[in-house]
Amino acid sequence: MVVAIPDTMRAMQLAAPAPVAEAPLRLVELPVPQAGLGEVLLKVRACGVCRTDLHILEGELPPHRSPVVPGHQIVGEVAALGLGAELVAPGGEAGAAPLALGDVVGVPWLHHTDETCRFCRSGLENLCEHAAFTGWDVDGGFAEYAVAPAGWVYRLPAGMDDLAAAPLLCAGIIGYRCLRLIGVVGDDAGLPSAAGPAPAPAGEVAPAAGRPAVELAAPRRLAIYGFGSAASLCTQVAIWRGWEVYGIARDEEHRSLARELGAVWAGEAADDPGVLYDAAIVFAPAGELAVDALRHLDKGGIVALGGIYSSPIPAIEYPWIYGERVVRSVANSTRRDARELLRDAALVPVVSRVQEYPLEQANEALLDLKEDRVRGSAVLRVS
Length: 383
Ligand SMILES: [Zn+2]
Ligand SMILES: [Zn+2]
What we know:
- There is one protein chain.
- The protein is of the alpha/beta class.
- Helices cover 22% and strands 24% of the residues.
- It has helices at residues 51-58, 118-121, 162-165, 171-181, 229-240, 252-260, 287-295, 318-321, 335-347, 362-370, and strands at 8-14, 25-31, 39-49, 74-81, 104-107, 110-112, 132-133, 145-149, 154-155, 220-225, 243-248, 265-267, 277-282, 297-305, 326-329, 354-358, 377-381.
- The site of one zinc ion (ZN) has 9 residues, from helix 2.
């Protein structure tokens, strides 16, 4: 079925960074973009709202393009195929069927890379020297239409609700990359817990590709600092993988969410969990939490910093990091992260808790996010 594409669309556009309380996003009428070579035009159904959008609005991330339409967790329906897009495997997955009109796909933060630099050639495209980011370098999904390269969008698991899928596309994927870098998922990680799902029947998505080789000796302990969208999604994957999760948040609403999702303990940073962690992920943009995580970390443990922005990290006493403890940041994600997160999200299955807003209330959604009033993930319903 061919649906007519209008000439113009509604979009929430940022002209200049300003405090979110001043509502810097303005509802504007823009021309519908055209799908270029190898690109697809998407009719946006939903777009997740992320702390990175907040950093773009408020200028902690300097403008890359101005004005810009933010939004980088796009669920959209293919409305038009640019020249050659019908030849491209979506998500960079060898052998994947090319896209057709009407397919529902997701667009994440990493819009595309040069595919040629030394990082891209070694499978670290998340570190590309010439990466372009959705809603920062190119217009994103706080609009009725958006374009993206066919090789950098991802088919969503069959039957997944638009609003539930949106938070997976940044919060979920970045959380998944954090889990990979601390050894919860990936080739060297432990087996999924006994409570995990049975292997998929033949012909369905098989977990074999991600099925790890090593069995855990005992439940391992993962601390997650900042219990927002990414934490709520990756907690479910970590528990599925047999880890115990400890949730650290400054307000009770988020601590109760951690417990509801299966955390064995939830507290504030000042509370004593009574154990040492094998790994920690810090999603909250507060540098002192990296040090707090380190001080509760067992020997050989890893602290992953999952934010694109953080306040400075205070001085670290050498004994806190001695014992082969590691602190590392997590930057963006690879196409493999996106594919495997979407695969595992369907297997677990990961449940998104969504707070829904209409497109024109993007400022309100971001203010709620800033003021810790979002329980789970904020998502704009666009069409
Ligand atoms: Zn590159
Ligand atoms: Zn994001």
